[in-house]
Specification:
The complex is a heterodimer. Chain A is of the alpha+beta class. Chain A has helices at 2-7, 14-33, 38-51; strands at residues 61-68, 71-78. Chain A has a two-stranded antiparallel sheet. Mean pLDDT of chain A is 72; it is low at 100-119. Helices cover 41% and strands 16% of the residues of chain B. Chain B is built from 13 helices and eight strands. Chain B has helices spanning 17-30, 47-51, 61-65, 71-74, 100-111, 127-134, 147-163, 165-168, 185-189, 196-203, 215-223, 234-246, 261-268, and strands at residues 4-9, 35-39, 76-77, 84-87, 116-120, 138-143, 175-183, 207-212. Chain B has an eight-stranded mixed sheet with strand order 3-4-2-5-1-6-7-8, with helices on both faces. In chain B, helix 1 packs across helix 12 (234-246). The longest helix of chain B is centred in the middle third of the chain and has 17 residues, at 147-163. The N and C termini of chain B lie far apart (48 Å). Classes of the chains: A alpha+beta, B alpha/beta. The interface between A and B is medium-sized, with 22 and 25 residues. The structure holds adenosine-5'-diphosphate and magnesium ion (MG). Magnesium ion (MG) binds next to helix 1 of chain B.
């Protein structure tokens, strides 16, 4: 309906909306797909450090690298809901042994974000 | 030996893979290349209908993979073109029947006597689709100008780059081409459909063809004739152009303007 579109331009161009939505979702999905190999190790180290201060389960810490055009964003999410704070002695200088089993999901080109999953 | 394996894949179903596989295989045959088109859509088997040879199927791909039939017992020679052969699939429900080593053996045998091996992939990103693309040298990503099709195409491009044989063996990557089908210029003009440029920019792979939405495609499948044999069909012409580009020739894109009847419609009416 050309005439209507002309009179009400904001009704127009659902194709442009489709294009913009696709660009955003695909930027996200591609970043997950091409997640670099160091993410699992980073996750492991972070769990180690955070774990000195807080009782934390493997699945409470997530690492993601998002890329959009020129910028990259390293996201580290630590879920603290209900986590117990550990009594800290001298700043907790001792290294806790790494959590027993962290199985890292290979970045499947599927829709899952590359959250490192517990085994 | 030097046969090229070309897969038509998309992720999403119903976008025109089978139509395109039939048209491109027939187009390559028309250009004098010995071509076989294989149906990888185990369980559904539609290529035989689209190619018009459904009543001549005796043995199929799975029979050959399992060693129950010889290749030359299963290949169906096209009645319209001597260079064209159809390799139908089975209607078994057992999708795992498509074993990778069996497929490899059959492809290796086909390589010795064909120039082009066209693989018509099932939809999805499961076993069947992965098997269909695994051995490809070239992939034609069949895409409709529509959000879910474009997104699924992007995923398939990612899978080709990571899970194909060429990727796993660190060979030169699979050559990927975009084939935009069911393109409706009238709707694009009205801002209702993604433009060619949109899709090209989003997927950023080279374009091998744009096939317009065309009534002749349904007519062709009704009669079991690959649409390139219909000389009056814009879709058929667009597929022949795509074949020429695959062969390395330069062709301008055609059929990008709405037909005459839709000028009135695009002003006042619906598509
Ligand atoms: N260019 C086109 N114009 C009109 N209809 C088309 C076109 N391409 C495909 N179709 C129709 O779309 C439907 C799905 O096509 P098909 O080739 O079976 O898709 P797929 O193999 O990807 O599932 C069929 O009914 C086919 O006739
Ligand atoms: Mg199909």
């Amino acid at each position: 309906m050309r005439l209507l579109d002309f009179l009400f331009p904001e009704r127009r161009n659902s194709a442009a909306i489709a294009r913009d939505r696709l660009k955003i979702v695909l930027a996200h999905e591609r970043a997950s797909r091409d997640a670099p190999d160091f993410l699992p190790d980073l996750q492991k180290d972070l769990l180690d450090v955070v774990g000195r201060y807080i009782e934390i389960r493997d699945d409470m810490l997530r690492v993601n690298l998002a890329r959009s055009g020129e910028t990259s964003l390293l996201e580290i999410n630590v879920e603290l809901d209900g986590a117990a704070i550990k009594p800290v002695k001298n700043g907790g200088g001792k290294t806790r042994p790494a959590p027993a089993a962290i199985v890292v999901a290979k970045p499947d080109p599927g829709s899952h974000p590359p959250w490192v999953k517990p085994g | 030996m030097s046969a090229k394996v070309i897969v038509l894949t998309s992720g999403k179903g119903g976008v025109g893979k089978t139509t395109s596989a039939a048209a491109i295989a027939a187009g390559l045959a028309l250009r004098g290349h010995r071509t076989v088109v294989i149906d990888f859509d185990v369980g559904l088997r539609n290529l035989d209908l689209v190619m018009g040879c459904e009543r001549r199927v005796v043995f199929d791909f799975i029979n050959v993979i399992n060693g129950d039939a010889k290749l030359n017992q299963a290949l169906i020679k096209d009645r319209r073109n001597d260079n064209l052969f159809i390799f139908p699939t089975s209607q078994t429900r057992d999708k795992e029947a498509l074993k990778r080593d069996g497929v490899e053996r059959v492809l290796d045998e086909l390589r010795t006597s064909f120039d082009y091996i066209i693989c018509d992939s099932p939809a999805g990103i499961e076993h069947g689709a992965i098997t269909a693309l695994y051995f490809a040298d070239t992939a034609i990503i069949v895409t409709n100008p529509e959000v879910s099709s474009v997104r699924d195409s992007d995923r398939i491009i990612g899978i080709l780059a990571s899970k194909s044989r060429r990727a796993e063996k660190n060979m030169d990557p699979v050559e990927v081409h975009l084939l935009l089908t069911r393109y409706a210029p009238g709707r694009v003009e009205k801002g209702e459909m993604l433009t060619i440029e949109d899709v090209k920019e989003i997927l950023s792979i080279p374009m091998v063809g744009v096939v317009p939405e065309s009534e002749s495609v349904l007519r062709a499948s009704n009669t079991g004739t690959p649409v390139v044999f219909d000389e009056g069909s814009p879709a058929g012409q667009a597929y022949l152009d795509a074949v020429a580009r695959l062969l390395g020739e330069e062709r301008e894109l055609r059929f990008l303007k709405p037909g005459r009847r839709s000028l009135f419609r695009s002003l006042f009416g619906r598509a």
